[in-house]
Amino acid sequence: MYKKTQLISNTCLENVYSHYSCKKRIVLSFYKYFIILDPKKLCYLIKLNLEKKNILGRIYISEEGINALISIPFFEFSYIKHFFKCIHIKTKKMYMNASFENKKETFFDLRVKVKKQIISSQINNFYFNNKKRGIYLNAYLINKYILYKSCVLVDMRNSYEYEIGHFFNSITVPAQTFREQLKKIPKYLHQYKEKKVILYCTGGIRCEKATALLRNHGFSQVYHIYGGILCYLTQVKKYNLRNYFQGKVFVFDARLAKKVTNKIFSKCISCNQFTDRVHINCFNNFCHRLFIQCKVCSIKFDSCCSEKCQKKLFL
Predict the structure, then answer these.
(1) What is the tens place of the pLDDT at every residue in 11-37?
(2) Catalytic residue positions, numbered
(3) What domains are defined for the chain?
(4) pTM of the model as a whole
(5) Which sign does the torsion angle of CA 34, 40, 44, 45 carry?
């Protein structure tokens, strides 16, 4: 009888890297759009300064800027923050979102890569100019505008991110990739062209390009949340404001999700019942679909998204 096995379990991976880790770490995310003349040179500089500091995560560099999500030992936080603030004059006032994570590792290695774009858009006849982005809004103004009929709040994250948590009274542009969303939004939001259009995403990077694209298509009242959902949550906590984001925030590391409230939006793909479980990939590697499944159905279908994929495991 076929027995499914996982080559390296998550527990094993955590044990392998445990001797590199410390008990207290900080997850730091940041981005900055600015012209980088020599991305390879900056990539080398970052690797040289970070490789011996027990930094884990992802850092992407391109001619249009830098985008990073990294896990840092608590005692290295000041050094790393200062280092990135000083790599260029444009990063001196760069916003950084930091959160403490003591439960488990968020990453198991460090990858610093040069890419064509720090966030892929690839829209024909659209040249991204960061000076033409939308207007930033803080948590106070979001809480004010979210109740206005003259405003529409638009989620610029992928469908699998939206399904586990989102802002009250927000709409989504159904898509599995950001590139797909960018192609859709001018036409999709045309009915709201006379309203205040407010976009949001996890950390703000996607909205920089999305708001610029909308302005390029003649939208005059375009806004977005400064620092995205993560900054909003920091501000509502700091200033004791009402929180309008419900459910979980999808995060692109080993945690997959970060709980904000107890509200459950997600449903099991197999039985359509509400479940608080995080996303998994279909165990059939020829499918590898990302989905949510309750514990009962996960056992029943061998962690596959369908009976069809489950049957292929035994062929």
Answers:
(1) 444 444 444 445 688 999 999 999 999
(2) 201
(3) 20-114 (3.30.70.100), 130-238 (3.40.250.10), 266-315 (no CATH)
(4) 0.85
(5) negative
